[in-house]
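TICKET: design request
STATUS: open
ATTACHED STRUCTURE:
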């Protein structure tokens, strides 16, 4: 069959997901045509770019407001184009604030719509599920608990697995990675990941470094590695290190967070996607979460989940320690990590559970998503 598919993705992560999905669809329908908002990977996979994906990669309330007129103009232009010449299918990849409104108008016109990567509606502002139900014919989720949530709300859904689970091998080569990073082959290493955003690093760098100092007194041979996402976050971390732990033996990396976690015996990290990567790498972790007091006060009233970190969501129980807000102190973080560093048995038991969760998420996500959207077109 011949297919024409509209597709919209924003940011680098959406570009990667969409490009992999496109290739999986092309393997089944070689003459398929794609057009929409595309990043460089999508263009390389054959998507006709109507607008660049970077147009949607806007972070922060003030920044979004500044770009809002242009974003609305782009969405109107896409809507007119797709309504005038309807595609066989429209796929929104993440970017829910942009995509859901577009999907709703296209669905109303009879165009099948799918959305790849669920918003965190299961965690907060659950009333949004009504809008989602009106906007699409199929939700593709990365996690099984998301699919359970949508089924409970009678929204058509398919759990397709997580692409990271497909990419990350069952076992990481710790010794080889240590050699590549010029880290000691022997001895214990703790990885410090205080986040990828400047605001996160400002809040967590000092307690993380304080915890490292505390642990160093308990385990004098302990070494440290800290991957920082950008020059700005590295500067914040280095400044905190000069104040808190100027003599700490820490290797600071530009990026390479996955390699740093693989090289470590345990990981101290900010809540977020890094916790999922750490789980897939089978590394013991302690998760810290610290927001501004006002944001945390609001979040507590909006959140409807018991856990902050993805490993605990997936396990449905407190699998890894979560240390929140005022409890994020060097002593609390250090105590939580010390058990992993002193007791290999506890780490091995955790790795076994992480391995089960890895297999659960490894579903060949792109192929599963391709089959799901092509089923939708046939129906």
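STATUS: resolved
RESOLUTION: sequence designed for all positions
ATTACHED SEQUENCE:
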């Amino acid at each position: 069959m011949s297919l024409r598919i509209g597709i919209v993705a924003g940011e680098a992560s959406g570009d990667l997901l969409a490009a992999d999905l496109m290739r999986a669809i092309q393997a089944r329908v070689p003459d398929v045509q794609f057009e929409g908002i595309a990043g460089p990977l999508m263009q390389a996979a054959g998507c006709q770019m109507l607008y660049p994906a970077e147009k949607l990669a806007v972070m922060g309330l003030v920044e979004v407001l500044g770009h809002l007129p242009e974003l609305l103009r782009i969405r109107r232009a896409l809507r007119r184009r797709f309504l005038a010449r309807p595609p066989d299918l429209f796929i929104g990849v993440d970017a829910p604030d942009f995509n859901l409104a577009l999907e709703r108008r296209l669905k109303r016109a009879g165009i099948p719509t799918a959305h790849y990567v669920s918003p965190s509606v299961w965690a907060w502002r659950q009333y949004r599920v009504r809008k989602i139900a009106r906007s699409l014919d199929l939700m593709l989720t990365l996690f099984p608990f998301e699919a359970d949530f949508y089924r409970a709300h009678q929204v058509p859904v398919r759990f397709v697995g997580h692409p990271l689970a497909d990419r990350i091998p069952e076992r990481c080569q710790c010794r080889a990675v240590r050699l590549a990073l010029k880290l000691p082959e022997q001895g214990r290493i703790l990885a410090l990941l205080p986040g990828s955003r400047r605001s996160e690093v400002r809040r967590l760098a000092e307690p993380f470094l304080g915890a490292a100092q505390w642990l160093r007194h308990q385990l004098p041979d302990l070494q440290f590695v800290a991957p920082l996402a950008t020059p700005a976050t590295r500067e914040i971390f280095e400044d905190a290190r000069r104040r808190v732990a100027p003599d700490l033996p820490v290797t600071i990396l530009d990026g390479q967070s996955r390699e740093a976690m693989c090289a470590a015996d345990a990981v101290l990290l900010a809540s977020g996607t890094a916790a999922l990567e750490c789980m897939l790498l089978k590394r013991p972790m302690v998760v810290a979460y610290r927001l501004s007091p006002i944001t945390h006060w609001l979040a507590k009233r909006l959140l409807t989940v018991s856990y902050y970190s993805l490993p605990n969501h997936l396990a449905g129980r407190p699998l890894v320690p979560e240390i929140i807000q005022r409890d994020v102190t060097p002593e609390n973080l250090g105590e939580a990590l010390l058990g992993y560093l002193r007791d290999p048995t506890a780490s091995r038991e955790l790795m076994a559970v992480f391995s089960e969760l890895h297999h659960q998420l490894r579903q060949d996500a792109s192929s599963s998503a391709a089959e799901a959207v092509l089923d939708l077109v046939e129906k």
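CLOSING REMARK: The chain has two domains: 4-161+363-378, 174-361. The CA atoms of residues 206 and 240 lie 6 Å apart.
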